[in-house]
Amino acid sequence: MEENNKKKPSGFRINLNWIYMGLIVILGVLFFTSQEDSSSKNATYSEFKSYVEQGYASMIVVTGNRDAGSLRMYVTAAHIRDVFKADAQTVGTQPFVVVNYGSLENLEQYIEQQTQEGHFNGSLNFEHDSNFLTSLLWNIGPLILFFFLLSFMFRGVGSNIGGSSGIFNVGRSKAKLIDKDDKTTDKITFKDVAGQEGAKEEVQEIVDFLKKPDKYTELGGKIPKGALLVGPPGTGKTLLAKAVAGEADVPFFSLSGSDFVEMFVGVGASRVRDLFRQAKEKAPCIIFIDEIDAIGRARSKNAAMGGNDERESTLNQLLTEMDGFGTNSGVIIMAATNRVDILDKALLRAGRFDRQIHVDLPDLNERKDIFGVHLRPIKIDNTVDVETLSRQTPGFSGADIANVCNEAALIAARHGKSFVGKQDFLDAVDRIIGGLEKKTKILTAQEKRSIALHEAGHATISWFLEYANPLIKVTIVPRGRALGAAWYMPEERQLTTKEAMLDEMCSTLGGRAAEELFIGQISTGAMNDLERVTKQAYAMVAYAGMSDRLPNICYYNNEEYGFTKPYSEETAKLIDEEVQKLIAEQYQRAKALLTEHKEGHAALAQLLVDREVIFAEDVENIFGKRPWASRSEEILEKDTKLLAEAKAQAEESEETETPTNEEA
Fold first, then answer.
1. I want to staple 456 with a disulfide (CB 3.0 to 4.6 A). Which of 145, 368, 564, 604 is the partner?
2. What percentage of the chain carries pLDDT values higher than 70?
3. Contact between 97 and 73 (Cβ < 8 Å)
């Protein structure tokens, strides 16, 4: 019984030698059977003349030169047996006789004479003379070329080197190996990663695990098997992994989740096995998989949904390699994703990815450090204040800050400056947030006034609301797809109250309310505002439980294949009613505030029409100091003053650099 229960080894294995032999036989048969299906025989010139005079020739093909050569005389079907002593089934449908001749001139005269006498009614053809080597190349050359291509395809079979060369290497891992002795790559260290101190500390601990494992194992601890970097796009997850490669004195395998995906079945799982095989040979080492959600997406619970079997088999193989019966001592897996909510739960459990390292958007102090890193190669003047730039870029990721620095350098170079100033950075921030200024876009006077009233409505309401974000500047210069915009400095807080969200909604609706009050008609200019308000209202009611009739209830559903709402139709109707109520209340509130301050709003709109861009100090001159003073207002006042000074210095420098008529 035990012998019967043992797994029987597979009795059939593919032998490449048999494949080669089979291909050679098939090609040989095809090559020889593709030749002309006819027989031939040699004959003397006298026999040739006899055949022609008896009317046996149907076609004569002459090959040679003027002195000597050979010819092929094709025999008519009626006289095949007379010449070859066999029927057409034996010798073929077009048998011929090969004859050597001495003089081409005499041959031509003879054939012409036989044609006149009626003995030969066929065609006479001439072929160019070709030597044996040429014939051999024409006949065997394609076959040699085919075998060369075949050997090229099979090249690398059985090789232990990973890669994608060769048809049988498709299952090899595509991971890029960065060794500790690699001099070709510029190493990135933790000094190049600004901010993210908590994430760097956890990643640094992983490096220490590999460098000094005894420090942790002496107390009975185990080295973690995996770490998952989680965070929004552009926050530096891949940069952290590169810093680990630069800091760790161990081999580093780097690849993307999409490198496992292939059109061939079973390739993904094969590449996972090959990756871990190479990693075990190089242990201790680190494997980094970027965008792991390409293969780590949660497996389908419903087979009828038709999940990607190839992707799921790749994921199953990855789960087995990370925590199966085999051991991967000294191999630490790092991965990065910004969609951790869709990853399979089996991938996130302890024992596989033991820890999740959150790489969030940088705060104020971290943005200062990031600006410090990206400003190193840029020539800046003394007007650039890193602290002010950090406050002007709330919510920016590390990639966004790098883009700001690069854009500022391009703007300064475009204007022919020798150094990059503060105004260049502010222009870069404006361009990234709102888009490029479209000064060529033509607006009518009515459209310009309508946009000014709209933007002045936002500015007016935000000035008188307690939790509204402090205003920086307002512009009616078209940028991107927007005809006008207002810049604010949002306070960086971890929690948002209901009152703050309502004030933000009221401020956003200020543009539409101003159109209705002071123009008497509404336009499509508030479409983006209405979209933001609607999404925020639904989030407050359905997710945050901030509704009077649906308090403390969250209907958020994270099921990937959930096709039903987690609430009834009556509740859906109630949610719609609450959302409409919230928006209507804040809209009426916005109209009331604008009615109360209509003189100031009109003055602000006229100032916008005249100057196109106004700042917080202009709003303060009209409405007075903002009633809700806070620390952010003090910072904003300082920034406004610095901005005015930078603008004045920029104007002075332009006047200095502009040549006079005499100089020109």
1. 604
2. 75
3. yes
Q: How far is CA 109 from CA 52, 106, 112, 418, in A?
A: 13, 5, 5, 94
Q: Which tens digits make up the pLDDT trace of 372-397?
A: 888 888 988 888 888 888 888 888 88
Whether the CB-CB separation of 490 and 468 falls below 8 Å is answered with no
pLDDT tens digit sequence for 423-471? 888 888 888 877 777 766 677 788 888 989 998 999 999 888 888 888 8
DSSP letters, 453-509, are: HHHHHHHHHHHH-SSSPPEEEEE-S-BTTBS-EEEE-----S---HHHHHHHHHHHT
Do residues 561 and 301 make contact, with C-beta atoms less than 8 angstroms apart?
yes
Distance CA 627, CA 98 (A): 115
Least confident of 56-70, 348-362, 375-389, 550-564: 550-564
Helix-helix angle 569-596:510-518, to 10 degrees: 60
**How many angstroms separate the most distant Cα atoms in the chain?**
126
Cβ(457)–Cβ(425) under 8 Å?
A: no
Question: How distant, in Å, are the alpha carbons of 337, 399, 429, 504, 555 from that of 487?
Answer: 31, 21, 10, 14, 33
636 or 555, greater pLDDT: 555
Q: Which position has the token pair 């309502």?
A: 502
Answer for the pair 354, 227: CB distance below 8 angstroms, yes or no. Answer: yes
The set of residues, in sequence order, having a beta carbon less than 8 Å from that of 557 and lying 6+ positions away, is: 565, 566
Measured between alpha carbons, how far is 301 from 312 in angstroms, rounded to an integer?
12
Q: Is the pLDDT of residue 12 over 50?
A: no
Whether 197 is catalytic is no
What digits encode the pLDDT tens for the residues 188-206?
778 878 877 778 888 888 8
Name the active-site residue from 262, 366, 455, 515.
455
For the chain, the average pLDDT equals: 78
DSSP state of 543: I
Question: What is the Rg, in whole angstroms, of the alpha carbon atoms belonging to the chain?
Answer: 42
Number of C-alpha atoms within 13 angstroms, CB side, residue 415?
Answer: 19
Reduced to 3 states (helix: H, G, I; strand: E, B; else coil), residue 64 is strand
State the number of CA atoms in the 13 A half-sphere of 208 facing the CB: 10
Residue 559, pLDDT score: 57
- Nearest-angstrom CA–CA distance, 434 and 475: 11
Residue 461: which of 296, 245, 228, 626 has the closest Cα? 626
DSSP 13-29: ---HHHHHHHHHHHHHH
pLDDT, mean of residues 603-626: 86
pTM equals: 0.62
Nearest to 26 by CA among 36, 34, 16: 34
CA distance 27 to 80: 32
From the list 506, 462, 514, the residue with the least C-alpha distance to 488 is: 462
